[in-house]
Design brief:
about 150 residues; mainly alpha; about 0% strand
Length: about 150
């Protein structure tokens, strides 16, 4: 396998995750316009990528958190997949599920304080990430619980 094929696979997987996330957020924003604006939803993926980068570099987090991120990157770069990528839709759907589960696990394991410290986006976006990760919402002026 050529290096560019791996790169195309990673970029394709990230774009598919982005489109799936945007679709889910669009649906959520339509049902709950008081909690999230579409603009915040569109910013979510770049903010999430910066969050993951910040968590991966944070030496104060347990090694298991950073190891999960490394294993996720290796999985996405690997030509071996649960469902081969050449199968339309399903080929990348497994990547979306794996990315979602790993990110939820990483965010929950990291805890509220590192999540808030590394989150570059809006408060509304942070609340969405907290909800998707299964963390309780933080009210304005309230300190997040330790993770």
């Amino acid at each position: 396998m050529q290096w560019w094929e791996v790169l195309v696979g990673i970029v394709g997987g990230v774009l598919l995750v982005y489109v799936a996330l945007l679709f889910l957020l669009w649906r959520y924003a339509r049902r709950n316009p008081e909690t999230v604006a579409l603009r915040d939803a569109l910013r979510l993926l770049p903010d999430l990528l910066r969050l993951v980068h910040g968590l991966a570099k944070d030496r104060t987090l347990p090694a298991g958190v950073r190891l999960r991120l490394l294993l996720l990157l290796l999985y996405l770069a690997s030509p071996i997949d649960i469902v081969p990528d050449f199968i339309p839709v399903l080929g990348y759907a497994d990547d979306v599920v794996v990315v979602g589960l790993v990110l939820r696990s990483v965010i929950r394991a990291a805890g509220s304080e590192p999540l808030g410290r590394h989150w570059p986006g809006s408060d509304a976006g942070l609340q969405i990430i907290r909800k998707l990760a299964g963390l309780p919402p933080v009210l304005a002026g309230e300190e997040p619980e330790g993770g």
